[in-house]
Every structure is written in structure tokens, then in C-alpha cells.
């Protein structure tokens, strides 16, 4: 039996079946105990391999997603009156809008939860099997600037081209040079028909022309972003300021 198991291990390694051999002993014991037939035993091994590959693929997607810490929305407080109701959050987390290639714009001042919501939706998408990526506007700009010269950025660019969901955090936070504004428009123009885009911004769309220094590009960009889009305006006090921490003791001296 040991020689047979050794050969099974070697064949699993050869065919890269990493989910079968680790559970082989348990599967054999269950088969002997339950008098499992050959078909049922084979099915159990194949299910183990399928589960292994599913976990491995999810781990890869999580690694490339680029999510910030604390992205999970399970603990998000929807009782706060900031424009994101429990009903809206539930509908967003169903992710039907990704299949319909709808965009989401999360707009509001700093600290009201835009990035938390966007990254949480990205995490939900990764877990649901989508190719989803969280990037800051600066990340996107760096990729567009260097993709033709830096192999890793070229890989990143091609990865984004095949995405189901792209989150762009803090869009239009800073002005863009004309060359980069054109490159960014071309990027959006290439992906918007095949991928959903979630953006967070503290700038109203009417202010984009000023950040791009080009009303024509801003209009064309908004035309593509807002064609199939849900705009959610968030409000309220900054969570970070309300929960500001200090390294001094709370003493009056």
C-alpha cells in the first residue's frame, strides 16, 4: 500500500494535482468505513482537487487585487446617516451591477467611508470569482507613465485590461498633465465597455475639467464613466477625526 501511495503522490506532483494527495489517507479511511464505491471515491478525490484549486485561485486574486487593510464590509455600520443605507449596501454587495457592466461613483468629503466601501466591494468581487483590482489614482498614473518601459508595469496594464472590476481610489485628487490626462482617457475608453469601474472622489464631475485642464477630455471621460452609472453621495463627519487617537494620556496637565 505504501508503494502505491508513493506512486500516487508522485503522479499528483507530475500532474500538479495538489489537492488530492494531502487528503488521500482520510479519503481511503472513509471509503473503507462507508464501503464507498469506486465512482463515489473518485468523485470525492476530484472534489478535493476542485476545492484546492478554488482556494488557490482566490488567494492569487486576493494577492493581485491590492486591497487595503480592513476592506471587509461585514462590520460596516449602515446605521450611520451618511447616504449609504443598509438597503443600498445590500444591493451593491449582490454584485449584479458587475455582470451588467455598471459603474459606481462614491462621492463625498474625506473620511466618510468612500475607500472602505469601494475596497469592500472589491473584496466581495474577488471572493465571488471576479478579476477585481483596487488601485489609487496615483497607481494608475504610474502604470500609464511607465508601462512601455517597465515590464512589471506592462504586466499590470495588461492585467487591468482583462479586469471585471477596477476600483480607482481618489480620482481627480490632483491635477493631471495633458499627456497623462490623454493616457487616462484612453485607458478608460478601452476598459469601460468590458469592466465595471468604481471610483471614489471628493470632486464633483463639474470640477474634473479643472483638474484635467481640458474640458473636451473631461466631457468625453464623463460621458463614458456616467453612461451606465450609479452615483452615491456620501456625507457626514470624518470617521478618522471623530475617532482620532493620541499617544498622550487624557490628562489635564
From TrEMBL:
Segments forming domain IstB-like ATP-binding: 13-245
The UniProt record lists the keyword Acetylation: no
Key word Nucleotide-binding present: yes
Pfam families: IstB_IS21
Matching SUPFAM superfamilies: P-loop containing nucleoside triphosphate hydrolases (SSF52540)
Keyword terms: ATP-binding, Nucleotide-binding
Protein name as catalogued: IstB-like ATP-binding domain-containing protein
Native source organism of the sequence: Parapedobacter defluvii
Lineage of producing organism: Bacteria, Pseudomonadati, Bacteroidota, Sphingobacteriia, Sphingobacteriales
